[in-house]
Amino acid sequence: MTDTPDQTGPEVIGTRRGMFGVRGSGDTSGYGRLVREVVLPGSSPRPYGGYFDDVVDALAGALGADQFTAAVERIVVFRDELTLEVRRDHLVPVAQTLRDELRFELCLGVSGVHYPDDPDRELHAVYPLMSITHNRRIRVEVCAPDADPHVPSLYSVYPTTDWHERETYDFFGIIFDGHPALTRIEMPDDWVGHPQRKDYPLGGIPVEYHGAKIPPPDERRAYN
Q1: The most confident of 137-146, 194-203, 209-218, by mean pLDDT
Q2: What share of residues in the chain are helix, strand, coil (percent, to 5)?
Q3: pLDDT digits (tens, 9 = 90+) for 152-161
Q4: DSSP assignment of 103-116
Q5: Which residues belong to any copy of the NADH:ubiquinone oxidoreductase 30kDa subunit domain (predicted)?
Q6: Closest-CA residue to 73 (of 142, 175, 150)
Q7: Is there a contact between 43 and 76 (Cβ–Cβ < 8 Å)?
Q8: Which domains are delineated in the chain?
Q9: pTM of this prediction?
Q10: What pairs with residue 152 in β-bridges?
């Protein structure tokens, strides 16, 4: 058994105003006066419940106590999901250990997240893993600052992340070092910016439908 790194309570990282958190760029949702705190769950104390304790103990045993402490920043159990928050320099060896020693054979994709009010941790990459052998699911999460948006690619461990990492790069700007062909996959090559970041303007292009011309979101009538 190993202790949970950095046990902390919920962390408030900012306040979101409106539905999308941006201003002056066409939020026509009608929720302009919505104000809510952006809260991240902190580290969870033991016992984690279910098979989560076994997974954490097995990973600590396979990595060794020193490497486990250096690699795993926080362990979070939230809404019946186990998330291992891993420091990005240790992502590849942790993923390989999870695959080879704990039989998490399948990576189901990569999701990007942007927290513009979380200094030095603005960009997150989230990897859902599944053990086909044991029918278990966990998540691995790493973060990087806007000023240095680099994360090691997991292509060498999980080749299925190929296009998922490209999509996350395209929409969030996370650079996956070691990816064999890190290019845009949805937006044109010369597109400026990354459309799924929270600070990306809500613009658009006019759409014609049945003879009517619908203006882009930033030119529509606002109801807030």
Answers
A1: 137-146
A2: 20, 30, 50
A3: 999 999 999 9
A4: ---EE---EEEE-T
A5: 85-204
A6: 142
A7: yes
A8: 7-40 (no CATH), 41-184 (3.30.460.80)
A9: 0.82
A10: 177
